[in-house]
Structures are given as C-alpha cells and as structure tokens.
Design a protein that fits this description.
This protein has ten helices and 13 strands. The chain is α+β, with helices and mostly antiparallel strands. The protein folds into three domains: 96 residues; 120 residues, no CATH class; 91 residues, no CATH class.
Length: 327
C-alpha cells in the first residue's frame, strides 16, 4: 500500500493555474527563484482525479539524467479541490504571486476529525450502546487498575490546579499517522460513505477500549469530587499558595512557617511552591535561612502547606493562612 505523509487542502488563487488544472495538457513551468524553476506535470489517476508531479529543472531550465519526478499532490476535477504535499507548497504557495493558499488543515486531520465525530455519534456517550460491559483483556484490566489506584488522582489534581472540570464525555481517539493512497482515493470517490464505513469498523474493533474510557471517566470523576467536596483536604491550601505565587509572578518570596511549636521566616525561590503536592523541599531556601531551618526542624525536614502561615513579596502579602483556611 502506497503511503504519503500527508496532503493539505489548498485554494487556487490564480486563474492561469486553475485553467491548467481544469484543461491544460502540457507541462507547466513555474519560476521558483531567480534562476531556479520547476516543471509541473498532470497525469490522470482516474476519470475524476489527476495526480500532480514536479521536476526540478537545471539553472538553465534543462532536464538531465538526474532529473526525478516527485509526487506533489492530487486534483479532484469534479469538485475542483486541490491537495498538495507540504514540500510542494514552497513553489506554489510562496513568492510574489502565489498560485495557491492553504486552508491550514491537513487531510489526516480532516479525516480523523470527521471519523471521530461519527464514532462519538454512534456511541452517544452511553455505555449501553457498547457490545461489551466488562473488560476481559488482561492488559486492559491492569491498565484500568493502575489508573484507578494512581493515575485518576493525579489527573484530578492536575485539573483542579488548572481550573478545569472532568467533562465525563466519551471521546473517540481514531488516529492516522500517514495517509494511505487507497484511503485518500476512497475518500475522494465517496466522502460520506468512507467516513461512515471507517467509523463503524473502528467502533466494532474497539468496544473494550471504549468501555475502558467510560470506566476511567468514572474513576476520574470520583477522585475529583472527593477532593473538590472536602474542604479539609490540604490540597486546597496547596492550590491557594500555587495561585498566589502564579498571580504574583514572583521568583523569590518570604515564607513564614509554624512547625513543632517554632516559627521561622525565610527567603526562598518559588519553584517548590508551584508544585501540586503538600510537601515542599528546602533546596530553594537561601543558604543562611536553610541552615536555621535545619537547626530548628532537622536536617532532612521539609514543610507543608499547613505549616505556612504567611507569604510575602516585598511588603505585599500574597498569602495568609487564616484567610485561606476559611475558603
């Protein structure tokens, strides 16, 4: 099966180039530089599709034994749609009078997007539309167990810190790394039938994979709710500190902690305070302050969000534990 990396839908912006695509039979010479030029050739692939090839010419406009034809795209004559390889855009989409402009979306992106939307329509975010209701593949069982025990909580924390909420939606993940020629031709000949067939085949082959996504969504939502609805969870303080530092843009701050009956204020870099876990190491504390920290709390001690009572940047208070504790 022939593969190309991808093609990009382009819009023809010059009438002379449109005329050549629709009816020209002779090769077309395009000036690509002061002395460089490229020869374009158009060959019929099917009654409704022409393939385009290019050949770089010598500085004197000649060809030689070393001249090679390179595939550069396809033209759908029925719909007047032009698809070009990315490396062919240099000679057609640039320069003082470009022949085409690109739409910005590649063919694989277009196809994958449409197939995924069709698969999501088939499933309709309802696991009862799946042919299986249990994960049986041992590999996927382990995948689910790991996600439920570890990954779901990590993702929930990440979402909370980024101000996002799990959407609970099924999302199809059909991908296409390269564009097979047969796929491209099938799409050109009957776009709607191709999308429907590809979506149905993909859906039938991935029922357990789809169920796995539903079960992971359940685990993620459960972890998210467990944190979000627990006002005593220390992660709320961690996030308050994170937000305060992020908003300020400060690189160094003064932190006051109360720990083991002792209070200490110290200067520290903000990198540890931008973490998502309720434990901060002392590596970014100023050397003299770190020695005092170790004297009071122990050489290998760290500190937590609960220990922090105040964070200041210059004379400005960024975080007050008493205020945030009420949130």
């Amino acid at each position: 099966m022939k593969l190309v990396k991808d093609v990009i839908l382009c819009t023809v912006v010059r009438d002379d180039f449109r005329w050549w695509l629709d009816g020209g039979n002779s090769p077309l010479t395009i000036q690509t530089g002061e002395k460089e030029s490229t020869l374009l050739l158009k060959l019929e692939k099917s009654p409704l599709v022409d393939y385009l090839y290019r050949m770089d010419l010598g500085r004197d406009g000649s060809i030689s034994w070393d001249s090679l034809l390179k595939f550069c795209g396809a033209y759908d004559t029925e719909h007047q749609s032009l698809y070009l390889m990315e490396d062919s855009l240099n000679c057609l989409a640039h320069g003082p009078a470009p022949f085409v402009v690109t739409t910005g979306q590649s063919m694989t992106e277009e196809l994958c997007g449409r197939i995924n939307r069709h698969v999501e329509k088939i499933i309709a975010n309802d696991r009862s539309n799946l042919s299986c209701q249990k994960i049986t593949d041992p590999c996927e069982v382990r995948n689910l167990q790991y996600y439920q025990e570890y990954k779901a909580r990590e993702e929930a924390i990440e979402m909370i810190f980024n101000g996002r909420t799990p959407d609970g939606q099924f999302h199809s993940t059909y991908t296409m790394e390269e564009l097979p020629e047969t796929t491209f031709m099938a799409w050109l000949q009957d776009p709607e039938n191709f999308i429907q067939t590809e979506a149905e085949v993909y859906s039938k082959r991935n029922q357990e994979k789809f169920l796995l996504q539903f079960l992971k969504n359940d685990a993620l939502w459960e972890e998210y709710q467990a944190i979000a609805q627990d006002p005593d969870n220390p992660l709320h303080r961690v996030k308050a500190i994170f937000d305060a530092i992020k908003t300020s843009g400060a690189k160094t701050v003064t932190v006051t902690v109360q720990k083991n009956g002792e209070e200490l204020s110290f200067r520290t870099g903000t990198t540890p305070l931008m973490g998502h876990h309720n434990s901060y190491n002392t590596s970014h504390i100023a050397a003299a302050d770190r020695r005092e920290f170790e004297r009071l709390f122990g050489r290998h001690a760290s500190y937590t969000a609960e220990d922090i009572t105040r964070i200041t940047y210059g004379k400005k208070a960024l975080y007050e534990a008493i205020v945030d504790a009420l949130m």
